[in-house]
Amino acid sequence: MKPDADLPRVCRGFTLIETLVVIAVLAVLAAMATPSLVAWHVRDQVDARARALFSTLSYARSEAVRRGARVTVCRVDAARRCLATGQACRIGVADWSCGWAVMVERGGASAVLRAQTELAAVSIAGTQTSLTFTPPAGQLIGSFRSFDIAPQLSSRITQGGAWRRCIRIAAGGRPRISDGACGATS
């Protein structure tokens, strides 16, 4: 007599219906979470770009003081040449999302100290196409300047002040970053 022959056979595992129900629930959850993840990624890009521009402006001001020379921050093309007002870059926009460079004037020529590449997903609207910091105190030539940083493509999810950053630069050359659009009232 075989000992296992009289025992009922036990099957373990999931039925096809149970597996399909679990897959359907996971698909619904993924579909609900996708817009939030995309929105989070866009906000992260806006924050990163705002911090990069802020640190570039601070660096340019400090280099003007340290070197005792005029230091310019300007929008650049792929070859790191300054772009003129209204001139579009390779990605077809005429704002600071094309990228920018910090340049120091030496003997009538400009040398690149630092450069930032383009990021088409984020729009950076500025009042000027270049800023020049002067020694001995790193002051900015001209008056008050600002940059409005926001997602390039606005959607229902990415509207409002939570999705925008503003960098303001006083005539003294010090940048300040804040949440919301530059024209918004607090």
Description of the structure:
The structure is a single chain. 24% of the residues are buried. The chain has one helix at 16-67, and strands spanning 71-75, 100-106, 109-116, 122-126, 130-134, 139-140, 145-151, 165-169, 175-179. It is an alpha+beta fold and 186 residues long. It starts with 15 loop residues before the first helix and ends in a 7-residue tail after the last strand. It has a five-stranded antiparallel β-sheet with strand order 3-2-1-5-6, covered by helices on one side. The chain has a four-stranded antiparallel β-sheet with strand order 4-7-8-9, with helices on one face. The chain has a domain at 16-67 and 119-179: 3-Layer(bab) Sandwich (minor pseudopilin epsh fold). Strand 5 and strand 6 (139-140) form a beta hairpin.
List the helices and strands and how they pair.
Blueprint: H1 16-67, E1 71-75, E2 100-106, E3 109-116, E4 122-126, E5 130-134, E6 139-140, E7 145-151, E8 165-169, E9 175-179
Antiparallel strand pairs: 1-2, 1-5, 2-3, 4-7, 5-6, 7-8, 8-9
The ordered string of helix (H) and strand (E) elements is: HEEEEEEEEE
The largest sheet is:
5 strands, antiparallel
As for the CATH topology of the domain at 16-67 and 119-179, it is minor pseudopilin epsh fold
Percent strand equals 25-35%
How is this structure best summarized?
The protein is of the alpha+beta class and 186 residues long.
Descriptors:
186 residues, alpha+beta, minor pseudopilin epsh fold, five-stranded antiparallel beta sheet, four-stranded antiparallel beta sheet, 1 helix
